[in-house]
Design a protein that fits this description.
- Strands 1, 3, 4, 6, 7, 9, 10, 12, 14, 16, 17, 19, 25 and 27 form a 14-stranded parallel β-sheet that branches. Strands 2-5-8-11-13-15-18-26 form an eight-stranded parallel β-sheet, with no helix packed on it. Strands 20-24-23 form a three-stranded antiparallel β-sheet, with no helix packed on it.
- The chain is an all-beta fold.
- It contains no helices and 27 strands.
């Protein structure tokens, strides 16, 4: 059984998605450029590239530029190798603006390796991390994660987020720079309307505790109050503990808050 191999090409996903795939087995993508658009008439879909319930995926030497959407979303996947990728994440500035979202979002996956990749995260305000990781058996090694400042002011949360409920996670030899939040944010919450079940709403790690009342944004450090949306209070509940975490040989510089926070 041979893998499906996709080599080269420019994929324009500015109006919808560049790729939506489910239940795929043995796929190789190499040298693909997936490009969203910052100001199309129709707002983008939540993800530019999306894989769900797929296995044996390899993406290498690809460029992924997303605007107001997740660049690469993996959900329920296993045995995934991401190598030498270049991510750019920025806001969507069309008629209904959308804040920058995570360049890479790994959700409930097993055995995912992210190696030697570069994430460039826009300076504009967002509660999202540059990279979000959740699952079992995750390796994030030798990557560069950069979040930019807006004329010297940090507005985007940035950094790498390891969500609660993850197991066997290795973060090694990465360089993380810039961002209002933490270099490595460890743990997460889910939100429920009026503080009642179901607690299923997922937000970026900065949602609910970024204070914008002063001349510059700051982090309150407290999620107890949650946030208001359309007149409805959304209250948090812990998503679970992180087990078997290795965090070593990383460099974290220029963060607005902490290098590591759990």
């Amino acid at each position: 059984r041979f893998p499906l191999v996709l080599v080269g090409g420019d994929w324009d996903g500015g109006r919808q998605r560049a790729l939506l795939a489910s239940s795929v087995t043995r796929l190789v993508m190499r040298g693909v450029i997936a490009q969203g658009a910052p100001d199309t008439t129709n707002a983008p879909q939540p993800e530019l590239l999306s894989f769900s319930h797929s296995s044996e995926l390899t993406l290498s030497r690809c460029g992924i530029a997303a605007f107001g959407q997740v660049g690469l979303f993996l959900s329920g996947c296993q045995d995934v190798a991401l190598r030498d990728l270049a991510f750019d994440a920025a806001p969507y500035v069309g008629s209904s603006p959308l804040a920058t979202r995570s360049a890479l979002d790994v959700n409930d996956c097993e055995k995912v390796r992210v190696l030697r990749s570069h994430v460039a995260f826009d300076a504009s305000a967002t509660p999202s991390a540059a990279v979000s990781l959740h699952g079992d058996g995750l390796q994030f090694e030798d990557n560069l994660v950069e979040t930019f400042a807006d004329a010297g002011t940090l507005r985007a949360w940035g950094g790498v987020h390891v969500r609660g409920g993850s197991r066997r996670v290795t973060l090694r030899r990465n360089r993380v720079s810039g961002g209002l939040g933490h270099g490595f944010t460890l743990g997460s919450v889910l939100f429920g309307a009026n503080g009642l079940p179901p607690f299923t709403r997922r937000e970026g790690p900065g949602r609910g505790h970024i204070d914008t009342s002063g001349p510059k944004p700051s982090v309150t450090g407290s999620l107890a109050g949650g946030f208001m949306d359309g007149g409805t209070p959304w209250r948090p509940r812990d998503e679970g503990s992180i087990e078997d975490l290795i965090l070593t040989e990383n460099t974290v510089v220029g963060m607005g808050t902490n290098a590591i926070s759990a």
